[in-house]
Amino acid sequence: MRRLAGRIVAYGRMIRFPHSVFALPFALAAAALAAGQSGITVRQLVWIVVAMVAARSAAMGFNRLVDHSIDARNPRTAGRELPRGVLSRREVLAFVALSSVVFVVAAGMLNTLCLALSPVALAIVFGYSYTKRVTSASHLVLGLALGVAPVGAWLAVRGRLEAAPLVLGLAVMLWVAGFDTLYACQDADFDRREGLHSLPARLGVARALLLARGMHALAVLLLSWVFWLAPLHPLYLVGVGGVAALLTWEHSLVRAQDLSRVMHAFNLNGWVSLGYLVLTVAAAWLA
After folding, report:
1. Mapping DSSP to helix (H, G, I), strand (E, B) and coil, where does residue 198 land?
2. Could you tell me if residue 126 is inside a domain?
3. Of all helices (H) and strands (E), which one includes residue 126?
4. Structural domain tally of the chain?
5. Which residues contact residue 23 at a Cβ distance below 8 angstroms, ignoring those fewer than 6 apart?
6. pLDDT digit string, tens, across residues 92-149
7. 146 located within any domain
8. Is the whole-model pTM more than 0.70?
């Protein structure tokens, strides 16, 4: 049992399980918007959570496989589970395959449309892992991978696509691209040496941080737009204001000449998503 527990912990560390808090709350917020005052059923809630966790687990495991050799050469990531040999490539490949199957099953349990679109979702989240080799827009592709979460959750509840989840998904895409750009500033020099593409490596840290702020400003505007697309109580705008305040705080912690608080700034995004979820659920119920 101790050995099994150790393996579970190793897998959890590999996929940074606590970081599920970034996309999952936005998916649940979209489900709450789709359901309105009637609320989502327990069955829908369970399968949405299972699908989200499985898709993210598959994506993170796949990313670790693709970036194995790069991570081993980067001092910041050399301590990850694959480079250190805590997990083998075969073990991680099996983990990715199992997580993918669970995701497809969960999508099928929601509705046939989600099942039909599940391969598309997997293609997006797997495809991201290769983009840093070819384009500095890789941050936006990562944003897209997380931005499909609220769209999928909306489809799980309503079974049809509408404007609100698309705008919310675009907001999530820009939010993620912004904080991933900030996070990538730590590896700007390494990326240049390795021939990898990122905004900090291409533009320099100062200009990349400025672009990240712009993406977050647009994300806040798009979140505000959702208020006009869905029947929501004005409390929703309080939530958007809270998101704006947290993102402002996030950017105040990072300077081109001082990246020592990048992780502190990065972790604030968990509060962004959780706060948005709580106030969006309340606003949908009060509408």
Report:
1. coil
2. yes
3. helix 112-131
4. 1
5. 52, 56, 146, 149, 172, 176, 273
6. 999 999 999 999 999 999 999 999 999 999 999 999 999 999 999 999 999 999 999 9
7. yes
8. yes
